[in-house]
Please model this.
Amino acid sequence: MSDELKNNHGLKGGEFLTKETDPVNVFTPEDISEDQKMMADTAKDFIEKEIWTKLDAIDNQEPGLTVKLMEQAGELGLLGASVPEEYGGIGGDFNTNTVLAMEMGKSHSFGVSFAAHTGIGTLPILYYGTKEQKDKYLPKLASGEMKSAYCLTEPTSGSDALAAKTTAVLSDDGKYYILNGQKMWITNGGFADILITFAQVEGDKFTSFIIPTDTPGFTRGEEEHKLGIKGSSTRALFLDNVKVPVENVLGEIGKGHYIAFNVLNVGRFKLGAMVTGGAKKYLSVAINYANERKQFGKPISSFGAIKYKLAEMASKIFVSEAATLRTSGLINDLEEKLISEGTSYSDALIKAAEEYAIESSIMKVFGSEILDYVVDEVVQVHGGYGYSEEYPAARGYRDSRINRIFEGTNEINRLLVVDMLVKRSMKGRLDLLGPAMAIQKELMSIPEFGNEPEGVLAKELKAVQNAKKAILMIAGSAVQKFMMKLAEQQEIIMCVTDMVIEAYACESAILRTQKLAKLKGEDAVALHIAMTQVYVSDAIERIALHGKHAVTAFAEADELKMLNLGLKRFTKLDPINTTKLRRQIADELIEANEYKL
Amino acid sequence: MKIAVCVSHVPDTATRIKIAADQKSIDPAGVSFVLNPYDEYAVEEALKTKEKFGGEVVVLSVGGDRVKETIRKSLAMGVDEGVHLKTDEALDSFAIAQALADEIKSLGSELVFMGKQSVDYDSGMVGQLTAELLSFNSISVCVTFNLDGNTITAEREIEGGKEIVETSLPCIITAQKGLNEPRYASLKGIMAAKKKVIQEKPVASTPALVENLQLKMPTAKNPGRILGTDSSAVPELVKLLHEEAKVI
Ligand SMILES: Cc1cc2nc3c(=O)[nH]c(=O)nc-3n(C[C@H](O)[C@H](O)[C@H](O)COP(=O)(O)OP(=O)(O)OC[C@H]3O[C@@H](n4cnc5c(N)ncnc54)[C@H](O)[C@@H]3O)c2cc1C
Model:
């Protein structure tokens, strides 16, 4: 990691909306260290040799196969990458784990088993376990000797996870809890040795438990027949008077929601990283196919319609990778800072992930929707062959879809983004009010017609700064109007979140490109600049559209007029020839025959 | 026993390469480099031999700073230490062999593994040249290797079959695909490699015996043509093989 990064005075969570970031302070793909790359290469070799050669067998759930592969991944250290060395892991930092997640995202169903085990299945113990619990479970989870599952969802509680009905009653002798209930959709349910489970103690004290699956009273349902990720085990699990020793309570009684949600913060970010890696792989599949396939006497990659698709996919992926690593860098640096200030390792990890929960939700939504866009276009580029199981496009298409559903649906995550912003602002944790008032004032004044900004992507950066003003303007007015009842206006919230996501994404891409331009010169980053411009140019239009939907939903008469004028003023960006840029991007992809940034 | 393994840092065979402006080298921009695939078998065999008989494995690589990456990859796979024989010149096979031979001699190593060829220039000579310079025995293109006391038995691939040969230490073995299944660099191995030593030594200059005049990209292959499906196509086929392909 560069020294500059170590000195990063990282913005607080959500603060990107009101403050600017110096490009030198962002972590970008170009900052990935040689060790991190070597670890990613190990993951890549493992996936190419052990997973891609067995995709059908994995999807057919050949008995014992996924378990064997998990153990192999354990031997290589992949399952213990985020577990400290004292517990048998590698103790890799957050960025290292992000880089690994991006690689693991190329492993289809196996990646889901992997993520459930190493993320939501292991982190609760790492974050909240007692010393005894950590000693007992972490080394075995890191080596793969034990496999884990995370059991939050129930038949009647999915998004509304805290409404779980599973009960835990303390035995008369006070030595164990007796659990009863049913869990639903549990990844790794078919083979997990331990479950991180949630249940209500004394009616409403939501609490987490570690349950070994050899405990009497525990049974597994049949495998679900799924739309995609068919090779991952997903089952309902039944708890019928399961006796769990009190030592197996994870964290405190009644504090299970902290565990559930803080672990999901990391899970969401990691999902975003995995899908970004997956999208990169699929784009290369499409480029390669488009170069090979000939129609009308030419490779289909020579047709403008196909070039458009390749360039559009590349630009979106470029942006999502920039935003993924930027977010990773923020979390990584805060972890390091907290640890250096004396915060315990576990607490530092929890706090850093919580601080950037807004950004993590953004990455979950943004990344999963880009992957869905990409796999859809990859099928299209393949034509009929995209519909055939003989080609990789079909599997990519069906395996992508789940990402918008689990780890909090994209709707729930969109709601969370605004909810967290508003709550942090009300608690004084984040100053949105001051900047929002300043914008009100700016709106009353005559717009400046100063000089055009100069430098690499300076116009685009200015447009994004303005877009952030549009967001504060609209969100501020909506909060004033609805006050505590804003939560009931979901349509407006969705629009505002979409604007926030676009602004964060655009800014991340600009920062990545500017940082590299400073390092290598503008000419060396022509492709980066083109992809950033293509993305930002369209994103500003989308921001304007979401803004229009939002303001027309709640404002009337003079207020509507003023908001509309403001929106126009803050979403202005001179049109550029994106067709030419897309051709230029596509030509480079076609020449390289892969997406290699 | 000190086992030496010699490795080279080569462009990944999957990347598209471009010839540099000097027409004599490839443009490294945008090319990803990897541990030469045949050298991976050599590293694996060296590690297996060490695991069986004890000792120490030292990895040697000749080249610019870039080759350190490949040395570190070998260290991550489990090699104990590295020697970077540093030069910024593009050396020919003989000069590389000379540099390796000098270092192997000073290490006092009697068993050396390397790949049968490196997939960049594909000259396939360094193993035998090094053996000759050291007066070591050598067995090339090995698909099996067995050490018993001082005696080495190995199977090597020959045209259309296999040959079993026996020799004794000191010896250089060059590895062919199939010799073993190279291990992955585990994450623990990568962490451990950070603490291992890489010595850097300048390469004494050896006059080049071979001069690289120019690199050229292979000419694009024409697609296959179907001339017909029965014997009536034979005269045309013979004519084209004679006049166009010039093979008969
Ligand atoms: C393959 C697979 C693997 C899974 N693995 C696990 C696992 O390992 N562990 C685990 O605990 N769970 C797991 N889940 C469960 C998953 O997290 C839930 O399916 C998800 O949280 C959604 O819950 P639900 O299915 O009950 O949908 P619902 O909550 O019923 O949602 C239905 C729809 O309503 C929307 N919606 C719900 N509430 C609101 C609201 N307040 N406002 C607006 N819209 C709303 C949702 O966005 C969605 O579009 C898995 C699911 C699948 C399919």
